[in-house]
Structures are given as C-alpha cells and as structure tokens.
Specification:
Shape: flat
Distance between the termini: 48 Å
Structural class: alpha/beta
Helix content: 40-55%
Largest sheet: 5 strands, parallel
Number of strands: 11
Length: about 450
Amino acid sequence: MNTYFRKLIRACVVFLDLLSLNASLVLSELLFRTISATATTAYVYFWVWMNISWLLVTWICSVYHEKHIFSFESLSRLTMRAYFYWLVLVLVYLFFARQFELSRLYIAGALIIFGVLLLLNRFLLLILWSYFKHHPFMERKVMIIGYNNMAKKLASYLEEGMNTEIVGFCEEAENVNELSNYPILDSVSNSIVASRQHQVTEIYSTIAPEHNAGIYRLMQDADQACIHFRIIPDLSYFVKRTVHINYLKDIPVLSLRQEPLSDEGNRLRKRCFDIVISLLVTIFLLSWMVPLLGMLICLESGGPIFFKQPRTGRNKKSFNCLKFRSMRENKDAHLKSATVDDNRFTRIGRFMRRHNLDEFPQFINVLKGDMSVVGPRPHMLKHTDDFSRLIDKYMVRQFLKPGITGWAQVHGYRGEIRTVEQIRERVDYDIWYMENWGLWLDVRIMFMTVLHMFTGDKNAF
C-alpha cells in the first residue's frame, strides 16, 4: 500500500477520535446544561486535559501505529486499553486538581459518550475497509518473473497485502520442476504479452538483468504498457538478514541496519535534547539531592559521596561513570556487579538503588558529553570484554553513547545478569532502539522510566 496513503489513513483515524472526544464534551453539555459563567475556566482546563491525556495515552500505547491501524482486532484491543488508562488519568486530574465546579453529571456523560463514539469509530473503519477491499481503486494485479525461492517468498509476502491478486509466474518451462501455487503464465520473454492479457498493474522480477539481459528490454516494454516494473535483488547468498539501501549520488550503498543517529542533524537534535534535560535536572533536582543524600551517605558509612567507575562508552572508549555511592568501600567495586542480597549495600544505598536515585549524578556525565539521557546502559570494562565474547552483536550497541535509561531497561532488562539469554535480550532491545531512534521515542522512554520509579521494578535493588 502507498506510504502516503497509509499516513493519510492514520491521520484520519487520529482526527476522527479527537473529533469524537470533543463532540462528547459538547453533547454532554447540550444534554445536561451544566456550564455556568463562573466556572468557565475550570471547564476549559478540563477540556485541555481531556485532549492532552488522550494523545499521550494513545502515543504510549501505540494505538495509531501503522502495524495496528489496519487491523480491526488489534486496533480495537489497543483502543480499549488506551481508553481505560485515559479514564485513570482523567480521574487522577479530578482528584488532584480539586475542580469542584465541574458537574459530575457532565463528566460522566462525556466519558460514556466518548466511549460509545470510539466504538462506533472502530466499526465505521471496519465498514470502510470492507468497502475498499473490493474497490477497483485499491486493486493490484501482480505478476512475478522467475520461479525460484525468492519468487515463492515474494508471493507469500504479497498474499498478506490488502487487495493484491497474484495472477501467476513467468518462467521457462524447463526451470519449473514442481506444482506451483499460482499458474506459470508464459516464458520470461513473453511476460509483457501475458501481463496485458491478465490486465496486470505491477510486475516483480526476481531475475536480475545481469543474469538475463532480456530483462532490460522488458523494463522498457513495461513502461510503454504503463505497468510498474520492480526488480527484487537476491542478496541471501551474501547477507542472511534485512539490509537497507541508501544512495551516494547514483551509487547504491547497502548497510546491515538503519541508523538514524548516523545523520549529523539527528545527532545534533539528540545532543540539544540531552543538554536541555540535563540542565533542568541539575538545576532543579541535583542542586538539593547532592547535599541531602550526601549528608545521609556520610552519616551512615563515611567516605566519598560519589562513586566513580570506568565504564565502556561510545566506540568502546572508557569514561568515569558517576553515581551516588550506595555501597561501603570495597576492593571488588570495579569487578563484581551488585546482586539482590549483596551485603555491601548501605541502608540509604539500597533505598537509592530501589528508586534509581543513585543514577542521578550521571546527568553530569551527559553534560560532559560522555553519556546521553537515553541509550544502552554502560557496562563495566570487564563485563564488556566478557559479553562481547559471548554475544556476536554485543559491540553493535557501542555505536551509540550509553544512556542513563534505555529501551531495554523500561522493558524490565536491568539489574543482575544471571544467564546469557538475559544479556542477549538486552542487546536485541538496544539494537532495536538504535535502528528506530526518534526524539519522541526518547521522551516515551523517559516517561516510562519515571513511571517505573514510582510504581517500582522487581529488578531494581
């Protein structure tokens, strides 16, 4: 499906939900007539919170993500979950804001009406998809040139697409030694004739022009016949995973992974984001946390307030990672990781670690440029050497600056590492973050981290 069409559909769904939300507020007022001149401000604040909280919850729950937006079941399930969380946020606002001027009848009416309208929206989308599914505007007729493993895999992927009809393959008869799922329409040289007969709109060639010079002529004939011609290169002999293609002028460049932060502009945006967040934390939090926690640390165990430990940074360069000292001074501090029943913890240290307070000095590392607010967590030098021998892709995570929090951490992969599978899962999450980075993803991870600080984490100790 066309990328711009997908974006248009997503925008329409978002707009329709916001329209329903605001319509529910208007309908509730029309039904109950509760807004008075003296309470207008309270109703405006409530209206703003209703919209902001809905956008926030749907973003966190990925309701409008492309992989969900075109599935009625997935979209409906996530919408119900988001609606429940949204109700909680609305109730929290009403509790803490103490907006006694708001009519409880008006609030209940708006919440119920919005839930009903959301349900109607989802059924409306189901009806529209059912209509478009058989509409000629959305119809694709596809023919595949070549009959090989790549062609069969391509056919299976195309079958998953919406309104895609595979009319068959074009291949020489002597190259087909099995019963195919779709008919063999003609030879490769006669594929354009066959495409006209079957009113094909797209042709996919799994045979490269370098292997059959006649493909060049077919490409020209397809243009003349107004048929989209696409070539599927088979790189499986060289690369056994997804590759990304970029261009250096007219030269195609293949890379094993997409890295948004390899772009200088994205790195600058992330660095500006890090500086702003770190300055705010330093001014408003560290300014009083350092003297307060420092006094408690000194009173219990004496010694320094901060603990400096060499950690592995970007491109395997080491740096001194700062933390509030949570353990008594010991000779194994740079060699042995903390465990659940570690007797080296002080009482204040165990409290700080449980609520992630010991990590706050790392915002100074962020200001210095050694770390980022969000990224793969830095490990001790010894552990980096050990894990890199166990996990093939481990050092890929070192392409990024380490972070105070990360995608793996907010999914529960933090604390003591007991098995190889645990570090492998962490690496997979870190690489996913690297390949899918965006400022909004960083904000989402920060929000989830703050949420875990208050709700607790079983792996935090």
